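Late entry, written up from scratch paper. The run itself happened at the end of the previous shift, but nothing got recorded in the book at the time, so transcribing now.
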Amino acid sequence: MLLRDIITELFRHGAKRLVVVNGHYENIWPSVEAIELALDHIGRERTGTLKILRIDHWELVSAQTLARVFPDGYPGIELEHASVIETSIMLALRPELVDLAKAAHDGPARFKPYDRFPGPVREVPASGVLSLTKGSSAEKGQWLLSDVIEGIKRAISEEFI
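Output as recorded:
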């Protein structure tokens, strides 16, 4: 509802080109729903030239960069919660907030091929780290951010210009 309200208010103030960058795997569908709810709230017949891009930042990282970041093989984004990608990006952006000496190494999670409700799910390590932070670095964070920034610029150029 927060994202729906932000989009609605930006539109009310005249914004016509919006980019929603998602950085959390579990927020994929809530962000899609928020955009759809905003369009419904605005009134789809009133949106005119409004265009919204929704981007999952990890989708913009090249296979070559992933191979550099994960020389032993990429575990997949679903296991990257608080792991190498996110830790490396934080090391590049806000290193003062990261203390690798305190990083948990109780993963990786081993999920079953189905979901159970209510949680918590036994397969998730107590730390919430779904893979491992080992191998994280600011340099890897810069590689990842470079791909993401270039990908966002490319998407904006293709869609808005």
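The chain has two domains: 2-59, 65-152.
(Scratch paper discarded after transcription.)
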